[in-house]
Amino acid sequence: MRTIVVSGGVLVIATAFGLGVVFGRFVLTRDLPNPPTAINEVVTVPGVGDYVTVPSPAFEAAPSLSVTLPAAPPPLPASAPPEPPLATAPRLQDGRAQAAAAIAPSPIEPGCAIQVSQDASVRSWDMTDKVIATAIGQTCATATINLSLEPPDGAALYTLQAPARDFGITEATSEEEVRNRLSQLLPREAVRAGSYPEWHAKSPAPTRTEFSRDAYETVRAADAPVICLKLPTGSPRCIAADPVSNRLKVFSRG
């Protein structure tokens, strides 16, 4: 009998405890603006063979700690190809050069161009060169007279010049007369170097010459050709080939 009384008391106490828990949770949660969703909680009462399931308030889920990163910036555009270099303006010629070109006189055909020539041995007896006399200018009276020694296929080897007036050529002189005066400048033939006087050692040159004593005596010993040219206002110049330099030089003058 005593055991039944005790068990009934325990049951009463457990029931009151369970009702208190339910009532307290009801009172605490009913006034909340947004009561959380309940989940079931199992409570075991000691000494009671049954389990009492009571609602248990759910806790608000913790806010997500994930951070929304800003969108990645768009990839940079590929580097643009380098711009082509600017075209360089054509370089202008110097103004002075342009001015000079603008005022440069046009070539004028000469009004007087007369030439006479004859073959002659100048560099050696085995070679045939030419002696050429030329009058060239706007008029024959103002022309320049050239007397030159030339090979058949090359530039002049030796040249003398004088104005036409030195030859007595005037505006009244005909072309035929100018041609005759030029022909008188041409030597008839070369002379032999052996005919010139010897140049003795330790003595002055026997004639005015551009040769050294050794070269002079070499030309004499070879009996090389000598061509004499004469201008109206100067002394004759007799020309021979220098065996050292192989150039034509004055072998004797006067």
Summed up, what is this model?
By secondary structure, the protein is α+β, with helices and mostly antiparallel strands. It has helices at residues 2-30, 95-103, 175-183, 213-222, and strands at 38-44, 51-57, 112-120, 129-137, 144-150, 158-163, 191-192, 225-229, 237-241, 248-253. The strands form three sheets. A four-stranded antiparallel sheet has the order 3-4-5-6, with helices on one face. It has a four-stranded antiparallel sheet with strand order 7-8-9-10, with helices on one face.
Describe the structure.
- The chain has helices spanning about 1-30, 95-105, 175-185, 215-220, and strands at about 40-45, 50-55, 110-120, 130-135, 145-150, 160-165, 190, 225-230, 235-240, 250-254.
- It is α+β, with helices and mostly antiparallel strands and about 250 residues long.
- The protein is globular and about 55 Å long.
- The chain contains four helices and ten strands, in the order H-E-E-H-E-E-E-E-H-E-H-E-E-E.
